[in-house]
Design goal:
It contains six helices and ten strands. It is an alpha+beta fold. It has two domains: 107 residues, 2-Layer Sandwich (Alpha-Beta Plaits); 135 residues, 2-Layer Sandwich (Alpha-Beta Plaits). Strands 1, 2, 3, 4, 5, 6, 7, 8, 9 and 10 form a ten-stranded mixed beta sheet that branches.
Length: 271
């Protein structure tokens, strides 16, 4: 079997998230169906992705892998890239398919995921309404950045996560930046080793509370002490969120990174 890497983008508006669900249109379900058709396989192959996005969330930089029986891997990669571009619906694109390096795992070898959330605090161009959330009050990007600095580093983000049995809420937030775009919107970018369920939308929701002056920086930093999800933290709509990029270590470090991540996940599930 040969492992292939797929670089993927999608408009999440009409998808019920990434993960396959019976009777619902999902990104994983759509891609697996078309992979099976294009390759004329008796059953659809299984995809593994870097970040399982929720319903309505978009992606420019999703990464997935699939294992296929391929006598000529390079030819299969080229054929898949060409045929999927023609076959897939307009709201889903596979930018490229390539033979993955040894040790590559789209999920466990990733060292960071970067998301962007786009906000409007004034009149919004109607053409941007599917990718931008509107907030009440004027946003102060500098205030968001100043307060957001307290969230950087390794913390328990339980206040910002929807609880899942056996899953840790400890994450390392590596980067956070709010910027006023030329078109007037505010973009909040975040990067972490991984994100728990609804974490990005909750983080940005809390930051907008500070950015509009409804809450202060001390309130935000105090949330890191909360042992469970806080009802004070608003969860922003899914449509403003985009998975922009996934980072991986150099090829020679892929296998060790994946082993470490798998071992950590196994320990978490045993606790």
């Amino acid at each position: 079997m040969t492992r292939f890497r797929l670089d993927i983008g999608y408009d999440g508006s009409s998808f019920h998230g990434w993960a396959a669900q019976a009777g619902l249109r999902t990104v994983q379900g759509e891609l697996e169906t078309w992979l099976g058709r294009v390759l004329r396989l008796p059953s659809a192959p299984a995809l593994v992705c870097a970040g399982r996005t929720d319903a309505g969330v978009h992606a420019r930089g999703q990464v997935a892998h699939v294992d296929l029986d391929a006598p000529d891997p390079e030819e299969v990669a080229e054929t898949l890239t060409r045929r999927l571009r023609r076959a897939l619906p307009e709201d889903l694109v596979v930018y490229r398919v390539g033979v993955a390096p040894d040790g590559f795992d789209a999920r466990f070898a990733a060292i960071w995921r970067r998301y962007a959330y786009r906000l409007a605090d004034g009149p919004l161009d109607p053409l941007l309404r599917h990718t931008t959330a509107t907030v009440r009050g004027r946003l102060d990007a500098a205030a968001i950045n100043a307060a957001g600095a307290s969230l950087l580093g390794l913390h328990d983000f339980a206040a910002f996560c929807r609880a899942r049995e056996g899953a840790t809420t400890i994450r390392q937030l590596q980067w956070l930046d709010a910027t006023r775009l030329p078109d007037g919107r505010v973009e909040v970018g975040v990067r972490a080793d991984a994100f728990c369920h609804s974490m990005v939308r909750s983080l940005v929701g809390a930051l907008t509370e500070v950015g509009t002056g409804r809450r202060d920086a001390d309130w935000l930093s105090a949330l890191l002490e909360a042992p469970a999800r806080s009802g004070e933290v608003p969860v922003l709509p899914a449509h403003g969120l985009v998975l922009e990029e996934v980072g991986y270590p150099p090829d020679e470090e892929l296998a060790s990174r994946a082993r470490q991540a798998r071992a950590r996940r196994s320990l978490e599930e045993q606790e």
